[in-house]
């Protein structure tokens, strides 16, 4: 392995790409240390440790490369850009003008990217305004600012405008960093930003796990024993193994190309395979499901605060918020159902069996035993429907691993989220994509890949 890493650094072009990527990721992490104007980082740190809303914001941060529990210039992360990209991708399948742009090749892709940037700015302004108005000044102005003197209405409004523009500019800058990594660096820029946010939180989760552990066999006083740490380690390895297995898993459809004669030569007739990924949807179903499940917890939690906490309505709203904000049976069942729904929904958008069948027909290829055209499309749809069950089941299992860990082993949700489940799935998937990008550079120069023996 050290020899392969030495070969990677010996290639000047690849070395420049890696150093540029690392430098941009360092700038990304540096921005999370810069608070908004007049905000006291020490007071915000106290709020982030208080639990409640801060715990929900930490869960949101897993999927958005953000740090909403810390009032910084990059507080929104890259989630507005991801939301805008998903919106335009969904519209591309139902809105004819966007569908026509998608079929125009590079020119259409650039136009859609331009629209996505405009939508990102619009979403940033809305989200940052809601965040600033609901989390920072209205919650407790003197709990966040450096000078807790009574603010005037004009000062509050001016600070809100400055905070909204600052957070919007921060997200646009992160979007630019992601595009620069795509063009001049190595790997997918947005995915690497999300992965960097996850990895940066893992050491803190590890330290929290160590504080909660003891060297005794059975633990005690709320601490984890040696046997529980071994179970956590085995589950950690099992989740990584499962992620790698499902991510690389394919259903290979046998495919035959038709023979044709050109001059005196007979061409074609070769037997190939059409690979269909088992997990065609990736991590998007988990992100969608988790985001939707956070909305009831936030909305009903806010309604509970509006009413009397000891009143009937306040207790009812708080109870509903706890059902969706906790790790109980209702949360797990709803999460699994949403993951299955979004897995099939996202697969239906990203994989069109009719287009695949038409492309096979145009290139003179066919699946043995199935007539080109509609029969081939129906067969591909049936196969994809079956293997999607496997991918959705795996994603559902990965999503409830944190609930199993925190519920049975009394581990805090922060530790469970980062050492089993969605965070691990995202980190391993992005790492695999990065290794494949590096391997492509090595293979072009007749070197062995990083994963080749």
TrEMBL record:
It is a multi-pass membrane protein. It comes from the Bacteria. The keyword DNA repair does not apply. It is found in: Cell membrane; Membrane. Keywords: Cell membrane, Membrane, Protein transport, Translocation, Transmembrane, Transmembrane helix, Transport. SUPFAM superfamilies: Preprotein translocase SecY subunit. One of its GO terms (cellular component) is plasma membrane. GO terms for biological process: intracellular protein transmembrane transport; protein targeting; protein transport by the Sec complex. Pfam families: SecY. The chain crosses the membrane at residues 73-95, 115-136, 156-177, 189-209, 229-249, 281-303, 329-351, 383-405, 417-435. The central subunit of the protein translocation channel SecYEG. Consists of two halves formed by TMs 1-5 and 6-10. These two domains form a lateral gate at the front which open onto the bilayer between TMs 2 and 7, and are clamped together by SecE at the back. The channel is closed by both a pore ring composed of hydrophobic SecY resides and a short helix (helix 2A) on the extracellular side of the membrane which forms a plug. The plug probably moves laterally to allow the channel to open. The ring and the pore may move independently. Belongs to the SecY/SEC61-alpha family. HAMAP family: SecY. Component of the Sec protein translocase complex. Heterotrimer consisting of SecY, SecE and SecG subunits. The heterotrimers can form oligomers, although 1 heterotrimer is thought to be able to translocate proteins. Interacts with the ribosome. Interacts with SecDF, and other proteins may be involved. Interacts with SecA. This is Protein translocase subunit SecY. The lineage of its organism: Bacteria, Pseudomonadati, Planctomycetota, Planctomycetia, Pirellulales. The gene is secY.
């Amino acid at each position: 392995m050290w020899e392969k890493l030495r070969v990677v650094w010996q290639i000047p072009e690849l070395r420049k790409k890696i150093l540029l990527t690392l430098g941009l990721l360092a700038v990304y992490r540096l921005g999370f240390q810069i608070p908004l104007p007049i905000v006291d980082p020490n007071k915000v740190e106290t709020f982030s440790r208080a639990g409640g809303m801060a715990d929900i914001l930490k869960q949101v941060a897993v999927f958005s490369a953000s740090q909403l529990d810390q009032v910084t210039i990059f507080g929104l992360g890259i989630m507005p850009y991801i939301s805008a990209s998903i919106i335009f991708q969904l519209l591309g399948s139902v809105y004819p003008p966007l569908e026509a742009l998608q079929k125009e090749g590079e020119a259409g892709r650039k136009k859609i990217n331009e629209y996505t940037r405009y939508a990102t700015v619009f979403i940033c302004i809305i989200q940052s305004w809601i965040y600033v108005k609901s989390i920072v000044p209205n919650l407790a102005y003197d709990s966040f600012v450096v000078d807790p003197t009574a603010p005037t209405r004009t000062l509050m409004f001016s600070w809100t405008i400055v905070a909204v523009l600052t957070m919007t500019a921060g997200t646009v800058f992160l979007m630019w960093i992601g595009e620069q990594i795509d063009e001049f660096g190595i790997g997918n820029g947005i995915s690497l930003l999300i992965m960097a946010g996850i990895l940066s939180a893992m050491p803190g989760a590890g330290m929290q796990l160590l504080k909660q552990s003891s060297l005794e066999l059975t633990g005690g006083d709320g601490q984890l024993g040696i046997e529980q740490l071994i179970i956590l380690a085995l589950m950690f390895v099992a989740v990584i193994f499962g992620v790698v297995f499902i991510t690389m898993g394919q259903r290979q459809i046998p495919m035959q190309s038709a023979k044709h004669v050109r001059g005196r030569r007979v061409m074609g007739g070769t037997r190939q395979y059409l690979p269909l990924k088992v997990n065609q949807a990736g991590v998007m179903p988990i992100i969608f499901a988790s985001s939707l499940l956070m909305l009831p917890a936030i909305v009903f939690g806010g309604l509970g605060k509006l009413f009397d906490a000891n009143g009937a309505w306040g207790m009812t709203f708080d109870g509903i918020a706890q059902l969706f904000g906790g790790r109980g049976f209702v949360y797990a069942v709803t999460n699994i159902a949403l993951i299955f729904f979004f897995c099939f929904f996202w697969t239906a958008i990203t994989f069109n069996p009719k287009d695949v069948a038409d492309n096979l027909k145009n290139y003179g290829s066919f699946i043995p035993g199935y007539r080109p055209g509609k029969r081939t499309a129906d067969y591909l749809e049936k196969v994809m429907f079956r293997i999607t069950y496997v991918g959705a089941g795996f994603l559902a299992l990965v999503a409830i691993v944190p609930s199993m860990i925190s519920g049975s082993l009394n581990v805090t949700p922060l530790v469970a989220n980062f050492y089993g489940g969605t965070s691990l799935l995202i980190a391993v998937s992005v790492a695999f994509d990065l290794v494949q990008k590096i391997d492509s550079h090595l293979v072009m120069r007749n070197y062995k890949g990083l994963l080749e023996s």
